[in-house]
Every structure is written in C-alpha cells, then in structure tokens.
Design a protein that fits this description.
This protein is an alpha/beta fold and about 270 residues long. The protein has helices at about 10-15, 55-60, 105-110, 115-125, 140-145, 160-165, 185-200, 200-205, 220-230, 240-250; strands at about 20-25, 40-45, 65-70, 95-100, 135, 150-155, 175-180, 235, 255-260. The protein is globular. It starts with 11 loop residues before the first helix and ends in an 8-residue tail after the last strand.
Length: about 270
C-alpha cells in the first residue's frame, strides 16, 4: 500500500512517502479518491447523515483499496443492537472499527460500552471475510485485545510507543493516521491544524486562556501551537513530511495514512 508514484516522481505524493489518504465526506466528494495517487483510501465517519451512498463507495472500492471507518457505538454499526448500516457497505470495502468520536454520537451512544462491541464487531468482520483495522484512540488495550491492524492517531509519543510495542514482541500490523499539511508556511499550517492541535489535552492546558488557535495567534500561544502541530500532525515541506513518515516506519509503523487538512489538492 504505497502512493502510486514512480521512483523518479517528484510529486508531493512521492516526496511525503504516505501510503494512503483519509477523506472526510463533509469536506469533499469521496469519489476524488480515485483521482489521487494513493492505492489506499480511508473514508472517515462524520455522522450518520454525512455517510457517502453505497454506490459511491462501491465505485471507489473498484479503483482503490478502500476502508470505511465505522464507530461500533453508533446506531447502524452497533453489533449489540442496530447494525443495519453494515449491510450497506460494499463487499469490496474493508472496515476501520473505532469507538467513535463523541462529536458524532448521541448521548445514548456515548454511554455504550466499547470493549465488547469492538471485539464482537471485529469477529463479525472477519467472519464475513474482512480484515478490519482497529482504532486505538482512548482504548489502546481493548484494541490490542480485539486484534487486527492497530490504527494509531499520531501523537508526540507515537514513535516511542511503536518502538516499545515492537520491543515487547508485537508483530501485528500498525497503521498511523495523521493530519498532513505539506507546506513550509507557518500561517498556512496553523490555519489548517492549529485548532486540531489545541484540542489535545496537554496543548489545551499550555495555551493561555482565550488564545487564538490559528494563524492569528501571537506570543506564547503561537509558540505552543507551533510546537504542538509538529507533535500531532505531519507538517512542513513535502520532504520534511517524508522524513517524519520514514521515522515512523523505522519505529515500527507499517502504514501511514494522511488526512489532507488543507484540502485534497495538497496531496496530489
């Protein structure tokens, strides 16, 4: 699973070394995935109403290795309740099983237990012939128990955690997901991922109260954000991103998937 670029290619895709791209259906038509130079395309979940139609997913799965994120606590994907939406996924699409971001879940869905649902959803996906990935954010031990490729959200400790996992003898697959801004322009980087980084607890605690979290940030806030976006996202010119991707793989990642936080055209 690598970018569909030749060794002599000087494109952004080739220079970053990313293996795949993650698309958000509220930001773009997921059909664009077939035009991007990546064999692997992941479609994020942003709520029931934003799900791409089955025919759109099927068309993309015919062109690319497609994975669709499905939150196991959400109605429609709940293996202990309503799992009706699973049948609407094309056979050629594999699943990324996650607990589910609270922003896209109802109060009732948030209260549902993750561990048994993650394990049952993984078993059901395998029984149907799939090879699910399991999102680890907030449920690392549960994700390991569920098995399959571990899908890690990039953080400041990811490389250390990967080395520790491999040193402990874990020989399963590991994929890393990260927002990507392949430009060497600090204002553009902060506009794209400053707010994202600011939501992470250590960053939120370090920021001055009421501080701006985009390119308008100044002083202490800008210093904190400039470091944080490099901890929690892949930023800088394409070669700098490529160096970070290479470091993640050297630490133990098998696959690195980038979400184009500044727009899909930045990863062509």
């Amino acid at each position: 699973m690598t970018a569909t670029a030749s060794a002599a290619d000087d494109s952004v895709a080739a220079r970053t070394g990313l293996d795949g791209v993650a698309l958000k259906p509220t930001e773009c038509d997921v059909a664009v995935g077939a035009d991007l130079p990546y064999d692997l395309v992941c479609v994020d979940y942003e709520g029931r109403d934003s799900r791409p139609p089955r025919d759109a997913l099927a068309a993309l799965a015919a062109e690319r290795d497609l994975r669709v994120t499905t939150p196991v606590r959400a109605d429609g994907f709940d293996p202990r309740g309503d799992d009706s939406l699973v049948a609407g996924l094309p056979d050629a699409a594999d699943r990324v099983l996650v607990a589910g971001h609270g922003a896209y879940l109802t109060d009732e869905e948030r209260r549902r237990a993750v561990a048994p649902r993650l394990g049952e959803a993984a078993a059901a996906a395998r029984a149907a012939g799939g090879k699910p990935w399991v999102g680890t954010e907030g449920v690392e031990r549960v994700a390991l128990a569920a098995g399959g490729v571990q899908y890690e959200l990039l953080s400041r400790s990811t490389e250390r955690d990967l080395r520790g996992l491999r040193a402990a003898g874990f020989d399963g697959g590991v994929a890393v997901y990260a927002p990507v801004v392949p430009v060497d322009d600090e204002d553009a980087v902060l506009d794209a991922v400053g707010e994202f980084a600011a939501r992470r607890r250590p960053v939120r605690e370090a920021l001055p109260e009421g501080a701006a979290t985009d390119a308008s940030a100044t002083g202490r806030a800008r210093e904190v954000l400039s470091k944080a976006v490099r901890d929690f996202a892949l930023v800088g010119d394409p070669d700098a991103v490529g160096e970070r991707v290479a470091a993640l793989k050297a630490a133990g990642a098998d696959t690195v998937v980038g979400y184009p936080a500044a727009g899909v055209d930045t990863l062509r």
